[in-house]
Amino acid sequence: MVREDGKRNFVLREDGEESSVFSGNTPRQAAMKAARRLDDQGDSESEAPREELILREKGSDKLHKYEAWAWTEPAPEDSPDWLEGEVSKANVSKQGIEHLD
């Protein structure tokens, strides 16, 4: 279901349970938001462990599958005062779409 602002809602599925809701104009945008919250984050993009993310688009039976990884980097020097320490970065790779039975 598309909202008035053009964004769609996607529910993160873990072990058949649906937990968090992420919104975005595209499934990839929502997957990137979900990937930044992964518990297991590496020190660099190449060392980051890969995990599978499954997002179900609300109002449909589509399951969007992604390989996701996240890592932390030092905050940029020109960042605002409230953004200190490390920041989380992420990337995803689409593995396909399935439909619920």
List keywords for this structure.
globular, mainly beta, 1 helix, single chain, 101 residues, 5-stranded antiparallel beta sheet
Question: What does this 3D model show about the protein?
Answer:
It is built from one helix and five strands; from the N terminus they run ββαβββ. It has 101 residues and is mainly β. The chain has one domain. Strands 2-1-3-4-5 form a five-stranded antiparallel sheet, with helices on one face. A hairpin with a 2-residue loop joins strand 1 and strand 2. The radius of gyration is 15 Å and the shape is globular. The two termini are 19 Å apart. The model has no long low-confidence stretch (mean pLDDT 92).
Main pleated sheet? 5 strands, antiparallel
Structural class call reads: mainly beta
Radius of gyration: 15 Å
Given as residue ranges, the uncertain stretches (5+ residues, pLDDT < 50) are none
The total count of strands amounts to: 5
Major sheet strand order: 2-1-3-4-5
What's the number of domains?
1
Percent range for β-strand residues: over 45%
Element-by-element helix/strand order: EEHEEE
Given the structure, what is the number of helices? 1
Helix content: under 10%
| Spatial separation of the terminal alpha carbons | 19 Å
**What general form does the structure show?**
globular
Mean pLDDT: 92
